[in-house]
Amino acid sequence: MTERLNVLVADENEPLRERLAEALPRVVGDEDVAVDTAEAGDTEAVWDALETSRVDCVVVSTRMTNGDGDSLSSAVQVEGVPVVSYERTNPSDIDIENLGRVVYDAARNSVGSLNHRALFEAVNVGLAVRDLETLELVDINQQYADLLGDDPESLLNTFPIDITADVPNYTAERARNEVNRAIQTGSNVFLWPIEGAGDEAIWIRVSLTVAELSGRRRLISTVEDVTEEQRRERELESLKHAVDSVDAGVTITEDSVHKYANEAAARIFGYPDAESLVGLSWTELYDDWEVTRIRELVQPELDETGKWQGEVQLKQLPGDTIPVRLSITALPDERYVVVFQDLTEQKKRERELERSRDFLERTQRISKVGGWELDLETNTLAWTEQTKRIHEVPLDYDPSLEDAFEFYVPDDRERVRTVVERCRDDGVPWEEEFQIVTAKGAELWVRTRGEPVIRNGRVAALRGTIQDVTTRRNREQELERTNAELEALNRIVRHDIRNDMTVIVGWAELLSDHVDESGNDILQRILSTGRHTIEITEVARDLIETMSGGVVETHPVGLAETLDRELASIRHAFPQATFDVDGEIPDVAVRANPLLASAFGNVLNNAVQHTGEETMVTVSVTADDDVATIEIADNGPGIPDNRKDMVFGKGEKGLDSSGTGLGLYLVYKLVDSYGGEIHIEDNDPTGTVVIIELPVATPE
């Protein structure tokens, strides 16, 4: 025999009241229970219903109060009628289903004869009852067992974490926290991954509610498979992020209705914001004739290829129409990504370009830059007069595309065809230099530029310029030849001078035992001058190697080894001078190259040459994690403050600088190329200190 349950729905919100009254019979009743619902919109109507009819349960909004301002739910409970209260003004379908189950539990004691198992099995979601203290399963329905992929008897011995999929951050502790939140607040809804038949996790929505069943407090849980829903939400979210990042207008439609629009789309359509477009059909954005054209033209291609691109007339919110380039991409389930680009300014520019052609022709004659245009619809090529002058053809010459290709030398002809085809097929512009042979046999270098002309969403023509750059290319080639010749001459001069001076110095050294005291002074001057000439050739060689190579490549160079080697060399060259190292040289590597030795050698040489008798040179080195500091001090006369920056030729033009020598200019260039710094300070009591700071090399 069918049992009947009478439910009174009380809420001042009429649409919500009607929605609940309509939904509760479906989520509470089944073949054994018939649910009748009545509605009450105010307190007086509730009391009338309680006094004049049978009410097994009152479903009441927490916002309703009695005449004294007290919650109506509390007042009705005093009358002894089961009461189920709710707070949400827009409950979801799941909320309503949960509400239906609570209504059933609340009315059960008053009705008494409801078929619990029939109702338990009738709900269309997985349902489980757990002991509130131990969380052990007391009962489940078949939907719950089917969803978790096991039989009811086996599932009764499991806990939530036993069936959790291997997904990061979904741990036993998190599961306990979700359950505790439901126990503390009375309910909780969350997503959870469980093990599926394969390797992929199944996502379920879990709704926990604390309720009293048969005099005992239970934890009621409903579970629903939302894997597909989650996948679609993630996919839609990815699409939203993608379209939010572009400047063009972008919408996503589903079943012809906009589900998403970015702000650029709202701006193009003339709407105040993107939200104003959501919910509108795409047909509202076009005139009727354009809607018909789009359906006839676009839909067949979308069905066949999934994509379409072209130009349409869009109807803005004020009623005006504007040209836009439309790009549509089909997605599964009747969804489309639509990209809009406003062509208003482009069309305006195209019209202005057409009007300015005559002006452009005059400008070309003045600047000696020719122009050309290839119409892809008619496959005709047009040259301006200046272009014809460059090719040395008559002004009435009518070129074809193949004729134009033939002017280019064979080695460049295929490359020219490639850039033209890429611009025609893909809209890729170019700017490159080629060689041509004119109609009169002159060989020229030309710089050509080309770009696409877009009409109705496709490349309709190519336009560009051509300029004779032969003079510049000849100058560049001549400069390269001159540089090569100078470098060769430089190597020859340095080689010959160095060899000759080495021979002179060698023979002069042999004379030291064959001259008297008066001749020895002259001999020493010869030796000093010869050695200095050799030094100049070495410095010149190092300087050219440093300055001619562009970017200086550096690598870790041992500081102690390099400095010790240069000190040994300078001691041998100047036995009369004293070279002292203050402390130990740190065993570190600096960013440099082999020319670092030349830098140290030139500073040490300079310290000896500009110091009188009893020369004393002191070297000290310190280093930290970032910088190594080398100080080379002498006891000479020192350098005035106004000359300290000038000794390196800083601020001057290279070899024409007013520095004190080519060697120190080389030192400055080398240290600077290593990323270091060099400066000069006074020594105490007299003399000069050259301070070099070099970056310490990090381990590679």
Task: Please summarize what this structure is.
42% of the residues lie in helices and 27% in strands. It is an alpha+beta fold.
Describe the structure.
This is histidine kinase. It holds the Pfam family HisKA. It catalyses: ATP + protein L-histidine = ADP + protein N-phospho-L-histidine. Its EC number is 2.7.13.3. With 700 residues, the chain is of the alpha+beta class. The chain is built from 21 helices and 26 strands. The strands form six sheets. The chain has a five-stranded antiparallel sheet with strand order 6-5-9-8-7, sandwiched between helices. A five-stranded antiparallel sheet has the order 11-10-14-13-12, with helices on both faces. Strands 16-15-19-18-17 form a five-stranded antiparallel sheet, sandwiched between helices. Strand 5 and strand 6 (137-140) form a beta hairpin. Mean pLDDT is 81; it is low at 111-115 and 650-660.
Q: SSE layout and pairings?
A:
Blueprint (H helix, E strand, L loop, with lengths): L2 E8 L3 H15 L4 E8 L2 H10 L4 E5 L10 H7 L4 E4 L6 H19 L4 H7 L3 E6 L5 E4 L1 H7 L3 H4 L16 H14 L1 E9 L5 E13 L2 E10 L1 H18 L4 E6 L2 E5 L1 H7 L18 H18 L1 E9 L5 E11 L3 E8 L1 H12 L1 H11 L1 E7 L4 E4 L1 H7 L9 H6 L3 H17 L3 E8 L5 E13 L2 E11 L1 H41 L6 H31 L7 E4 H15 L4 E5 L6 E4 L3 H14 L6 E8 L3 E8 L27 H12 L3 E6 L5 E8 L5
Parallel strand pairs: 1-2, 1-3, 3-4, 21-23
Antiparallel strand pairs: 5-6, 5-9, 7-8, 8-9, 10-11, 10-14, 12-13, 13-14, 15-16, 15-19, 17-18, 18-19, 20-22, 23-24, 24-26, 25-26
Protein name: histidine kinase
Pfam families: HATPase_c, HisKA, PAS_3, PAS_4, PAS_9
Catalytic activity: ATP + protein L-histidine = ADP + protein N-phospho-L-histidine
